[in-house]
């Protein structure tokens, strides 16, 4: 604290340390010129404390005599009364005219080998001489002023918007308690309501009404002392610590974007202090592998991982060693390879009997009369045994269930096609789930997501529980169901928005203070979950309403010949 802060800058003063001339307020240019003219280019020191005078700012000085002092040193009080230092008043003493070559500070025990000033009490008849250096006294003066101001503040009852029903009183002694503003137990001075159990830190009582965060650059965050009533309908979580926002939490928020943060989390984030356990890098995957992960969402629903896995690996007509006819374990007739479009003209959509996805070259087909069995070449060459991270206890074996169906433990869909299974555990995976990537990158999260099957995970995108496969970041407790992670395309067409696609939007959706309602199911939508939203038409849709998952996509409803 600057003890002379409130004093006005007087242009010219008389000072007891230089009685021959007055001291004038000089600027940095005059100080530099004096150093060049009188000191041979050296640094000018303060006569009182012997510390250098900065070439920036102002000081008091007599240029004629080369007598300069900091403004603060020139304005030191001549007498101070500090019982915390000494029982008697101390007088500002000038060692300049004396013959002493050094003197000793009785407070900090430092030996000062210069003239200058100190505060002194002397009684020669009793052999008493007490010296205190300027620095020690200035610190004590600042403490005394702060304590006096605080005592004055404690005698005042203050009103605060965060507790409008009663006045608050400042307590002088610091204490550790659970602050009703920031919900932390940091020790410090505090305000207390003498009528009820309301306590807040002194620092929390003087929070800035608005702050700007780089995490939310488009709008300022406004301080509120409780969750606004209009947001009571849905659950909201702090953007940093991910903890549930209670109705009476003090918050920094952006109403338009439904952006909420506990006050301490926001201030820590503004200071560069991590507030979230997952703020650091994820350690699940090596950095060099992250760049090779598939990025979701894709332009289309990712329903055919086998095709992507083998695209570019199988050329239709450049392999002389391709077998034109094979006997496959899944079918009783020989299968003939179709490597080009000749003889493949059919108006109906044909699907592979292995993965139940549209046929693409090259594929095998059965040309026996009355039998329309078809199989992608890569489906015909699938490994009969598979080790999979979702079922590490046992190997999975390829099977073809004809005449009955299975239920996939990954996507929960039914199928009567090829699938991998563990007979011991009755664990089944359709081909699409069996060959989904083990790790992915997703637009909604900063870390890679790992494929898991957790007991009843709650998806962070649709807020639904599922027994099936999901993608998980353990460090952040972030999880996406398989459908939300891989099946939602980046944009989608709908008759409500003719001529353009509807993009998949992730919160916050900027500058949309109104509530969202799904144009299909007509229910209000949680604004903190992903949605398909058309800014042009102002249409919004639940992902599950506009892009419904087909739980029978692995079923073939057709009789195949034997």
TrEMBL record:
Keywords: Metal-binding, Repeat, Zinc, Zinc-finger. It holds the Pfam family C1_2. It comes from Lactuca saligna. Residues 166-210, 229-271, 445-497 form the Phorbol-ester/DAG-type domain. InterPro entries: C1-like_sf, DC1, PKC_DAG/PE, Vacuole_Formation_Reg, Znf_PHD. It comes from the Eukaryota. The lineage of its organism: Eukaryota, Viridiplantae, Streptophyta, Embryophyta, Tracheophyta. GO terms for molecular function: zinc ion binding. Residues 45-109, 178-242, 351-412 form the Zinc finger PHD-type domain. This is Phorbol-ester/DAG-type domain-containing protein. PANTHER family: CYSTEINE/HISTIDINE-RICH C1 DOMAIN FAMILY PROTEIN, PHORBOL-ESTER_DAG-TYPE DOMAIN-CONTAINING PROTEIN.
